[in-house]
Amino acid sequence: MSVGERDPHTGHMTTGHDWNGIKELNTPVPKPVLLFLAATVIFSLVYWVLMPAWPLGVSYTKGLLGIDQRTTVETRLSEAAQARANWSEALAEQDFGQIAEDDTLMAIVRHSGSTLFGDNCAVCHGDRGEGGPGYPALTDGSWLWGGEADDIWETLRVGVNAEHSETRIAEMLAFGRDGILDRQTVLDTVSYVQSLSGAMDGLDPDAVTRGEEAFAMNCSACHGESGQGDATMGAPDLTDDFWIYGGDRNAIYQSIFHGRRGHMPQWETRLSPVERKILTLYVRDLGEQAR
Amino acid sequence: MVGQLTKTERQFGLAIAVLVTLLGLAMAAAGRQDLLGVHGLIVVAFGVGAAFLVISGAHLPEPAKERLAHYYDDPIKVGIILSMIWAIFGLFIGVWVAALLAWPELTFDAAWSSFGRLRPVHTTSVIFGFGGNALIATSFHVMQRTSRARMPDQLSPWFVLIGYNLFCVLAASGYFIGITQSKEYAEAEWYADLWLVVVWVTYLVLYLRTLARRQEPHIYVANWYYLAFILVVAMLHIVNGLAMPISLASAKSYPIFSGVQDAMVQWWYGHNAVAFFLTAGFLGMMYYYLPTRAGRPIFSYRLSIISFWGITFFYMWAGSHHLHYTALPHWVQTLGMTFSVMLLVPSWASAANALLTLNGAWHKVRDDATLRFMMVAAVFYGLSTFEGSFLAIRSVNSLSHYTDWTVGHVHAGALGWVALITFGAIYAVVPKLWNRKSMYSWKLVEVHFWLALAGTLVYVFAMWNSGIIQGLMWRTYNESGTLAYSFLESMIAMHPYYVARTFGGLLFLTGAAVGFYNIWKTIKEAPAVQEETAPDRPATMPARVGTVEAGE
């Protein structure tokens, strides 16, 4: 019943249908389309024969090549580990001193350490270990927990205030909030702490003296008698110019009034011993290069 | 609006509005301790609003029988405007999240404005808000025109349109306040999902009823595509949405699938949402508006058929290519990959069918930005389907997966194909719907075209670059066999591309805003057509015996 007409432009017939002015040509499917379809179907058939492809109830066709992603990834991983074995074994066996003296090993520590550090540590400690508010710089030579390789290794292993049974614990008490000291005394100790790093400008000498007394009573047990810090407790040196939380009056006041409890994750269950060794040496090296 | 509804329809409409209000009240009461309560209030607002609308028109006289000699276009008009509103909103949020990736501090110190919440607001608003409303509106237009029949009643199109927008509002507002199922493109929670099922089934029935009333012997291709879109989306939505709410008083639910099965169902859904929402539906749009605008017959009826069945068949299998190199068994990945490769043929056949239809009308493409929108859309459709099949190849995917290349690919499709074909269709249909000679300003259509094209190109090129660089940085080893770059370094390398992408998005958004203004002016000011030259009306004489239904 539908009668086609010839389209003057292409010379093809229409199908004779007309919908709201739309017509369709009866052009045959172009050859390339069919060829292309055949090619992709043949490709798929071949691929199905070679690779794991179709389910068979509880199993599946394994493919002639016997490839499976699980085994592929396992072989690749062990090959990669093999390729690294020449230096990773040396790193595992030698102690920090020996490695530090070996230039080839230190070259590996530097470039693989940089990626490890970027992926695991830089979010908190900064790209180059320069630190930021709340996160200590690792390059300033002023260490909370000691700067020897063994100290750093231990900090990495157990973390600080971390989820590890042996974690290091660092707790700066909330002297003001918990009512251990009144507000005025807190303010006095702030003045004293400021004076410790030589920032005497604008400080009331009486307040500093009062603060010194309060410090001896309340703070020196952790921060040391002269405020030089104590690496066994992670109490920072208050006499230098390096601050975790900031050295201005307000930041120091916040530290003393509300307390501080920095969190450094433990890495024992997350990074291998070799990786932690690399990082330990890398962190020390960062500091040396920065100075 | 309400004056066009019959008295019975008004009564039914009021009943539905009251029912929705009661449902909303129940949600608000049961969920008062939960975020569900907030959504209950939104539902109440919708219900009361709709009831108010119906009541305000209740006194109007019964509409004249004369109306049956015309197509029913009111819901289409509203749908087009809603679609443009969602476009502006969704694109704006898109530019915002793009900017956040370049400048993370560009946000408020509040949970609702965090990247993780804004991102689904963006995707939902553009895909479901903009795309979905455009599909519903144009499908109402196309199904009536190509069937030469008026819709069977006047209430169900409104129910579909308003109900669908209620779903979109529930979805988008939910992400802001922290309600999500955490399934990409299916984030809405169980009650919104259930509501969508009701709306969608009504939509399907409405479509079928209109087709049953058709005065043409055959069903035009565009309708096949729209039907595939409606039918398959219903199936995908229901299966992927199967979930158990933790309680009827809570917005939270858990999917019934878990682990790798859940991932597979999710990507079977996700990829077929691309296939049947973002492809089939818009192909339906293209098959109507491109030939009518070009004034040319479809290049090949046969090609239409094989591409339709090719697309519907192959797409169904392709979803697992989203899960290459994961816990998904290798054989499922193989199937996903090979079917994706075969899928290229019908995809390209569709694009070719569109472009070859333009033979004999290329001068129009040059002069008419509206047709050019559709032509470029077909080109992008071809490009992004090629890219899709290519990225589905496992070894290519090992480079591209998890990188911005995927994001670039999606946007070549979403901006280049989906949005451009929609804008083309909207510019074609707006003057017809509002009975105007043409758009208010053809120059502004031209401006919109170039902004949209430039925006898309800048976006896609930026993401190709950043994606490939990212992929290469992540797999580069140094001579000692450890990774050469940290993730952070790759992020730093992305910065310039993220800035470029934001700029591209901004161009695209500006274009859409220009379009919105132009459409608004067309409705308000453009001169009306005085006399109907070729009357745009349903057929009065039944062409087939036995298809005429009792009318209203």
From TrEMBL, chain A:
Gene3D superfamilies named among the record's database cross-references: 6.10.280.130, Cytochrome c-like domain
One Pfam family linked to the record: Cytochrom_C
Descriptive protein name: Cbb3-type cytochrome c oxidase subunit
TM region(s), chain numbering: 33-50
Stored PANTHER family: CBB3-TYPE CYTOCHROME C OXIDASE SUBUNIT FIXP
InterPro entries referenced in this protein's UniProt entry, alphabetically: CcoP_N, CcoP_N_sf, Cyt_c-like_dom, Cyt_c-like_dom_sf, Cyt_c_oxidase_cbb3_su3, Cytochrome_c_Oxidase_Subunit
Lineage: Bacteria, Pseudomonadati, Pseudomonadota, Alphaproteobacteria, Rhodospirillales
Family: Belongs to the CcoP / FixP family.
Pathway(s) this gene product operates in, as recorded in its UniProt entry: Energy metabolism; oxidative phosphorylation
Entry keyword Electron transport: yes
Requisite cofactors: heme c
Principal location listed in the UniProt entry: membrane
UniProtKB/TrEMBL annotation, chain B:
Keywords: Cell membrane, Copper, Electron transport, Heme, Iron, Membrane, Metal-binding, Respiratory chain, Translocase, Transmembrane, Transmembrane helix, Transport
EC code: 7.1.1.9
Regions that span the bilayer: 38-60, 80-103, 123-143, 155-178, 190-212, 224-248, 268-290, 299-318, 338-361, 373-394, 414-435, 447-464, 498-520
Catalysed conversion reaction: 4 Fe(II)-[cytochrome c] + O2 + 8 H(+)(in) = 4 Fe(III)-[cytochrome c] + 2 H2O + 4 H(+)(out)
Disordered: region residues: 531-552
Pathway participation: Energy metabolism; oxidative phosphorylation
Keyword hit for Ribosomal protein: no
Domain Cytochrome oxidase subunit I profile: 1-552
Protein name: cytochrome-c oxidase
Organism listed in the record: Aquibaculum arenosum
Organism placement in taxonomy: Bacteria, Pseudomonadati, Pseudomonadota, Alphaproteobacteria, Rhodospirillales
